[in-house]
Amino acid sequence: MPIITAFENSPDRGRGQARDMRVRWALEEVGQPYDVRLVSFAAMKQPAHLALHPFGQIPTYEDGDLALFETGAIVLHIAERHAGLLPTDANARSRAIAWMFAALNTLEPPIVELGMAMLFERDRDWYAERLPMLQDRVRTRLGELSRRLAGADWLNGAFSAGDLMMVTVLRRLNTSGLLDEYPDIAAYVARGEARPAFRRAFEAQLAVFQAASRS
Q1: CB of 110 within 8 A of CB of 134?
Q2: May I ask which residue range the UniProt record assigns to the signal sequence (predicted)?
Q3: What integer is the mean pLDDT of 109-127?
Q4: Which pLDDT value is given to residue 92?
Q5: Does domain 3-84+197-214 have CATH number 3.90.1150.30?
Q6: pLDDT class for 119, splitting at 50, 70, 90?
Q7: For 57-85, what is the mean pLDDT?
């Protein structure tokens, strides 16, 4: 049974934003049972964890003698070995993988930069001037994504690993107000969140936070 690592006490406070959510969701979509090893922030910087993740982050994935880090690599590994997250047609399969890369390399960087500024830079003198620039960078990508969706339920026909990765990236905007400006993208995210596999993964991650809060 695969083992993934997750925060012992997640800084996202149970909102399903920690990156192990992507791996949990993928495993739930394909019906693969898994175990979770919770790690503290201190343990993440110790040799045992660094042997799995050289940058001292989560999640990691272990299955037999295979150890992986980076959510894109882990989700792709799961999708390639189980039916349900990649199309069988070769071209459609490649397009779904391309959307995984687009989510991580094109959408996520400006979204994370905006989120970090909103969390940690509010008291800086230049915050008010910088914020609109960061928001407009995200708006540019959301506008491009909206044109690509063009009213479709998913990015490339049926739901795929590309959608899974894209929805988890876009959910980082849930408290920014920007998704309200793009109703079609907000509906796209809501469709992802409504999937039973997403709900199972979300509840599993939330339960960890709730247990940590009670301790």
Answers
A1: yes
A2: none
A3: 90
A4: 97
A5: no
A6: confident
A7: 97
Q: How far apart are CA 182 and CA 162, in angstroms?
A: 20
Q: How much is the CA Rg of the chain, to the nearest whole Å?
A: 17
pLDDT band at 202, cuts 50/70/90?
A: very high
Cβ-proximal residues to 131 (8 Å cutoff; 6+ apart), any chain: 117, 118
Q: Evaluate if residue 125 carries a pLDDT over 90.
A: no
CATH topology of domain 90-195: Glutathione S-transferase Yfyf (Class Pi); Chain A, domain 2 (1.20.1050)
Three-state helix/strand/coil letters over the chain? CCEEEEECCCCCCCCCCCCHHHHHHHHHHHCCCCEEEEECCCHHHCHHHHCCCCCCCCCEEEECCEEEECHHHHHHHHHHHCCCCCCCCHHHHHHHHHHHHHHHHHHHHHHHHHHHHHHHCCCCCCHHHHHHHHHHHHHHHHHHHHHHHCCCCCCCCCCCHHHHHHHHHHHHHCCCCHHHHCHHHHHHHHHHHHCHHHHHHHHHHHHHHHHHHHC
Q: How far is CA 6 from the centre of its chain?
A: 13
d(CA 104, CA 211): 30
Tokens 């003698």 belong to 65
Q: Are the CB atoms for 95 and 156 separated by under 8 Å?
A: yes
Listed residue (57, 85, 110) closest to 160, CA to CA: 85
pTM, full prediction: 0.95
Report domain extents, the chain.
3-84+197-214, 90-195
